[in-house]
Specification:
- Helix 3 packs parallel to helix 21 and helix 9 packs antiparallel against helix 21.
- With 886 residues, the chain is of the alpha+beta class.
- Residues 1-35, 134-138, 201-205, 211-218, 469-473 and 741-775 have low confidence and may be disordered.
- The strands form 17 sheets. A five-stranded antiparallel sheet has the order 2-3-4-5-6, sandwiched between helices.
Length: 886
């Protein structure tokens, strides 16, 4: 599948890249072309080819229009006086001269364009060409607007249009219809040239604002008009950064940064460097492109959070990657060394990838980092050996280690002991430690030291044996006993020491709850010590660095409920320290903000695939991207630059080489190719080839000089002739076959027919198909009633007369949904754009919903309803054209 390429900005990336080479010599610029990527070369070739096609089609339209205008002038003496006056006014205004002048400019443009195409390696020449033809107020293309207005003035000279004018005043009807066709031809050519102008404007600098790119020259581009309406003093240029559903533009300093999305401009509160960094890190962390809404949120609401998270990510990666033997042993003791390896492998030990994931907390990387670094940096390990004076290891000895952070007690095994103890890294070096050893039959031992290493070996300690008759110190008071290890008197169970130092029952002492200095903590009674401790409240945990209580983000998110907003999940707002609900990945907020909906199909319907003929946007749920893929019944060509009918691809790859004297033929019924004998040959009896049936073999036609053609047998003349392959038609000069999509949007043959009708009406010879006099006309054969309608509005039947609804879709290409209901009485509905049919229901009575693809020079479509197509009456129908993207 091909990536989405917007035709209106197809050279954006290429031009921005190529501008760096504009100061080179001719020889250097050729080298610059070789330095371009294959994608950039393909983009440059595409825009040059597109411009050439548009110029050629515009010339054809104007040339044919001039021919029909001349036919009308040839009938000048036989036309009504008002029409003669109109023709004189048009000629006095220079209509023919202006059309010829425009044709000359188009010819000049085409000639220079061919020159650029022939030496496209000369980057500087291509850029200068587009810059020189950038539109301005004096551009000759503007004369087409004058001609369009002139035709409107000509029509105003005719009598007011009346109902059933076709049979009440046929001459006026014919002239009015012909003039409207002329105007349509001019408007279509004007639309094509405006499209060329827009491409030139975008590709010659791709900037807009008050210098060089002011929208006053062409306000048909909604981006330019919207930016001009902002009234800023900036000139902004496209940066090449494209979030999903948006484009990033910036001034030359990178300070004023705007994003175009959802049909409006939004100022980003971050500089271009930070915007580009956010875009890059999101893609690195998620393997997908962030949406325009996410870009706005991170630049305008979470900018501080982003910077803090980025800095913390860099710090945490440094801490994680600083592995030594001590920390490795600590992780192994906690059975977490494998988890550390998995985390580092998940980011390929890449600092940038880790930071990107940490910023947006992908795959729970923050909580896992916190758990591992706590073990690596906030844990101590003490180890040593206990022996007696004879060097025998003492097992079962009780070893107690006390530090300012607390105490741990364990027993020796074969004389060895190992302790793991929680102690925050800050301030522990140099802190005092006290080691107490007790063992049956040995005197108690006390040693002191200081902490100087995270994994500290306390060395060898030796115990002295005691005499059996040594008496215990029994000098403790009532309700208490002597602890030989701690060498202190301790209250019996159920007793606590009061302020006078006497052990009394617990019920007789009422400890006071303290005022906790941390607002996120509360006093909790400790039954072991008999006092209150300040403990973090629910949903808060101690911060190992500051010691204060901070929100337990993961626990809060686990207990947060977003079910009232469909397709959302809880996320943490680090700026406000609170949870909020946001869309699941691949979903976007609905317009009513009451939930989220899948964004993929919406993005696909809005994708611009006009750069790849016969394709449509398709959402890939695996890669989370929109691609252009072929329409049903089409396949990619060999170069994957356009889709061609499947029949064409099937036929072009079909070979009859294994059957002598045969050639490929197309079966239109089965829609498949087959082999048949050459003219003058017949199948052999074994059906493994063909043999001559006449003395003279018919010469095989050579069609290699005619693109997209094939030899076809002419049975009448018994010769081989060249004809177009399936899916192609002859061009106007019959020198080549072109895809059917390139047929002019207006059928110029219809103009010839109308001129014939006009000529016949003047002489009184009304064609048989046209009513004359007062002959009654059936309702469904009367001229259609024309309405100006809007998309998303449901249109209902107004009677048995034909109706035409003109609807502005706001864009020139895309896909829209079309719902219609023709009930039991059959009707026909035809949708056209620029005179080209894009949907035909046939004569049906049904209810149906279809997706209609459109692409042309105009944003207007026409929906024509031909009622009672089966010859009945009393019809009822309705239809809705949904706006693209809905």
């Amino acid at each position: 599948m091909k990536p989405v390429v917007a035709r209106a900005a197809v050279l954006t990336l290429a031009i921005l890249t190529l501008m760096a080479f504009t100061g080179m010599t001719h020889a250097q610029s050729g080298k610059a072309y070789l330095q371009l990527t294959d994608e950039q070369k393909e983009t440059l070739d595409d825009v040059l080819s597109t411009s050439k096609d548009m110029v050629t089609e515009s010339q054809e339209k104007l040339t044919k229009m001039l021919g029909e205008w001349q036919k009308l002038k040839d009938q000048f003496d036989r036309l009504p006086k008002p029409v003669q006056n109109a023709i004189n006014d048009a000629e006095a205004a220079g209509l023919t001269a202006k059309v010829n002048y425009t044709l000359g400019k188009l010819k000049q443009f085409e000639g220079e364009l061919k020159d650029v195409i022939s030496v496209k390696e000369d980057i500087e020449k291509a850029i200068n060409f587009y810059q020189r033809y950038a539109p301005d107020d004096q551009n000759p293309f503007r004369s087409l607007e004058v001609m369009s207005n002139l035709f409107e003035d000509v029509e105003k000279l005719l009598p007011d249009e009346q109902e059933y004018e076709a049979f009440k005043a046929p001459v006026t009807f014919m002239i009015r219809t012909g003039i409207r066709y002329f105007k349509e031809g001019i408007d279509l050519a004007l639309g094509g040239l405006r499209n060329i102008q827009k491409q030139i404007r975008d590709r010659a600098g791709n900037c807009m604002g008050y210098v060089g790119g002011d929208a006053s020259a062409d306000r048909s581009d909604p981006r330019r008009k919207a930016f001009t309406d902002l009234g800023t003093s900036y000139t902004i240029c496209y940066t090449g950064v494209r979030p999903v559903g948006g484009e990033i533009w910036s001034d030359e300093t990178g300070t004023a940064v705007y994003i175009w999305s959802s049909g409006k401009w939004t100022r980003l509160q971050a500089g271009l460097g930070l915007v580009t960094e956010i875009f890059r890190n999101w893609k690195l962390a998620s393997s997908s492109v962030l949406s325009a809404d996410e870009m706005i949120r991170w630049c305008n609401s979470y900018q501080k959070l982003y910077i803090e998270s980025r800095d913390w990510g860099a710090r945490e990666f440094g801490r994680l990657s600083s592995m030594d033997l001590c920390r490795e042993r600590l992780l192994e003791k906690r059975n977490s060394y494998g988890d550390w390896m998995s985390l580092m492998e998940s980011v390929n030990t890449d600092r940038n990838l880790y930071i990107a994931k940490y910023i947006f907390d992908k795959d729970g990387i923050r909580s896992e980092t916190k758990r591992l670094t706590t073990i690596m940096y906030d844990q101590l390990m003490f180890e040593g050996i206990i022996e007696d004076q004879e060097g025998n290891r003492v097992s079962g000895a009780t070893v107690t280690i006390s530090t300012p952070a607390g105490a741990r007690t364990d027993q020796t095994v074969n004389g060895r002991y190992t302790f793991l103890m929680d102690y925050p890294e800050a301030g522990r070096n140099g802190a005092p430690i006290e080691i107490t050893v007790t063992a049956a039959g040995y005197s108690d031992l006390k040693e002191t030291s200081v902490i100087y290493n995270q994994c500290q070996d306390l060395g060898l300690l030796r115990l002295d044996k005691v005499d059996q008759d040594e008496e215990e110190d029994m000098s403790c008071g009532p309700n208490e006993y002597y602890d030989p290890v701690a060498q202190v008197c301790i209250c019996n169970d159920g007793y606590v020491r009061n302020a006078q130092g006497i052990c009394v029952p617990e019920d007789d002492v009422q400890p006071m709850a303290p005022d906790c200095p941390d607002p996120n903590s509360e006093p909790v009674f400790n039954s072991a010590t008999g006092v209150y401790d300040c403990v973090c409240k629910d949903y808060f945990v101690p911060d190992p660095v500051t010691g204060l209580c901070k929100p337990d983000v993961q626990q809060i998110l686990n207990d947060s409920d977003c079910s009232q907003w469909p397709n959302t999940r809880p996320l943490w707002d680090y700026a406000r320290n609170e949870p909020y609900c946001d869309c699941l990945p691949g979903y976007s907020w609905r317009p009513d903000n009451l939930g989220c909906e899948e964004a993929g199909k919406l993005l696909a319907s809005q994708a611009d695939c006009s750069g790849y003929p016969n394709t449509q946007g398709v959402w890939d749920p695996v890669d989370k991207k929109v691609y252009c893929d072929c329409l049903p019944g089409y396949v990619w060509d060999e170069d994957r630059i356009m889709c061609i009918p499947a029949a064409v691809a099937q036929f072009s790859g079909f070979s009859c080489d294994n059957l002598p004297y045969t050639m490929p033929m197309w079966d239109p019924v089965r829609q498949e190719p087959y082999c048949d004998c050459l003219p003058g040959y017949k199948w052999r009896d074994d059906s493994k080839g063909c043999e001559p049936i006449t003395a003279t073999q018919i010469v095989q036609a050579n069609c290699s000089h005619i693109p997209n053609s094939q030899p076809v047998y002419d049975a009448i003349n018994d010769v081989m002739a060249c004809d177009c392959m399936p899916g192609f038609v002859w061009n106007s000069s019959r020198t080549a076959c072109e895809p059917e999509r390139r047929r002019p949007a207006i059928d110029m043959n219809s103009l010839v027919d109308f001129m014939t009708i006009i000529s016949g009406a003047i002489t009184g010879n009304v064609p048989g198909g046209m009513p004359s006099g007062n002959t009654p006309v059936p309702a469904n054969q009367q001229p259609p009633v024309v309405h100006q309608s809007r998309c998303n509005d449901t249109q209902k039947a107004g009677g048995d007369a034909p109706e035409v609804h003109q609807i502005d879709l706001g864009v020139t290409s895309g896909v829209f949904k079309f719902d219609y209901q023709t009930f039991d009485v059959k009707d026909q509905i035809i949708i056209s754009q620029g005179g080209r049919t894009i949907f035909n229901s046939g004569c049906v009575g049904e209810s149906r919903s279809v997706q209609v693809q459109f692409s042309g020079y105009t944003t207007m479509i026409e929906v024509r309803v031909n009622p009672n197509c089966a010859g009945s009456s009393g019809t009822a129908w309705n239809f809705t054209v949904h706006c693209p993207g809905y």
